[in-house]
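Milestone 3.1: sequence recovery, worked example.
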């Protein structure tokens, strides 16, 4: 009898230890973010894939979008989120794919978004997108060679002018700029090229002038000014004031002296459509709220990856650029006291 009791006691101890170890394994799995067996069918534990549309690799959109994805993915409280950046053709594709539900978020140019949300220009219908966060200005520059006879935008008539990559949608802000200066696309020969390609076209004389844009400093303008003697074509003051009055996405930007080689004086340029983060109008409010909260809270980490992250500041992120804000973003901005009713 004593032997039997001893055996049963030992068996109970072994079973107790086994149960305890199993419990500890489940706890450890939870701490690692693994899904316990009994929660496999719990939708709340499923992985969430959040994709951010950017633009072709090599431009600011791709770098900034990648930085945003890394920062949100590394700091979001919900461990089941996986946030990644995706190279795309740029704003126009991003808007269409956000509306179609193929992208949760995307970067866009505010000028193109302005017309898309209203169904104007080449947009046949209104596209239901919403601003999530206003980011860095897109500072526009027209460049030409110091040896050319072009000294104003009106001098483009009869010349070959680079107007940006095909399909990028630059005409949404370039056409108003040209119209304000009394000239149209029909007055010159438009050439489609990337920014880097535009620099080469200027260098070999295949183009008389070229448009480049982006954050300050713009890589293409830096390359052009270090490899060639470049003249920065000024914007007419009256034309700028007309654009500022007619469109919310245009505003004045001064490029500090010596930003580019040979630029000895400050240059009065323009924001021709800020970079901004968009979502679909019907995007889940809590998802947008948590995304914006994480990005804004950890904005210093974006700055470490790209200087354009400095635009994620209290005054700039809520700036009205003509596209209505998403309610999830507004809720967060109200929570921290920076939303202007």
């Amino acid at each position: 009898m004593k032997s039997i009791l001893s055996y049963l006691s030992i068996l109970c101890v072994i079973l107790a230890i086994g149960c305890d170890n199993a419990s500890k394994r489940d706890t450890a799995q939870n701490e690692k973010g693994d899904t316990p067996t009994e929660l496999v069918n719990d939708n709340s534990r499923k992985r969430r894939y959040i994709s951010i549309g950017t633009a072709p690799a090599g431009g600011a959109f791709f770098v900034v979008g990648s930085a945003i994805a890394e920062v949100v993915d590394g700091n979001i409280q919900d461990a089941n989120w996986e946030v990644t950046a995706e190279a795309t053709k740029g704003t126009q594709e991003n808007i269409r794919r956000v509306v179609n539900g193929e992208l949760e978020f995307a970067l866009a140019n505010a000028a193109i978004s302005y017309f898309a949300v209203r169904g104007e220009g080449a947009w046949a219908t209104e596209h239901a997108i919403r601003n999530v966060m206003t980011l860095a200005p897109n500072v526009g520059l027209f460049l030409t060679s110091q040896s050319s006879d072009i000294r104003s935008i009106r001098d483009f008539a009869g010349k070959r002018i680079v107007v940006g990559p095909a399909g990028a949608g630059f005409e949404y802000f370039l056409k108003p700029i040209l119209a304000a200066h009394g000239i149209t696309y029909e007055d010159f020969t438009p050439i489609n090229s990337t920014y880097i390609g535009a620099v080469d076209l200027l260098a070999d004389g295949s183009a008389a002038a070229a448009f480049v844009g982006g954050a300050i400093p713009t890589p293409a303008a830096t390359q052009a000014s270090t490899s060639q003697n470049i003249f920065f074509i000024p914007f007419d003051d009256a034309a700028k004031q007309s654009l500022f009055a007619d469109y919310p996405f245009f505003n004045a930007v001064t490029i500090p002296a010596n930003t580019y080689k040979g630029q000895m004086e400050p240059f009065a340029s323009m924001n021709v459509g800020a970079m901004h983060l968009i979502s679909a109008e019907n995007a889940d409010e809590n998802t947008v709220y948590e995304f914006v909260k994480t990005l804004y809270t950890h904005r210093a980490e974006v700055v470490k990856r790209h200087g354009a992250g400095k635009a994620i500041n209290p005054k700039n992120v809520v700036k009205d650029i003509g596209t209505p804000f998403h309610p999830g973003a507004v809720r967060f901005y109200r929570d921290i006291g920076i939303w202007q009713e």
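Residues 27 and 114 are 50 Å apart (CA to CA). The two ends are 83 Å apart (CA to CA).
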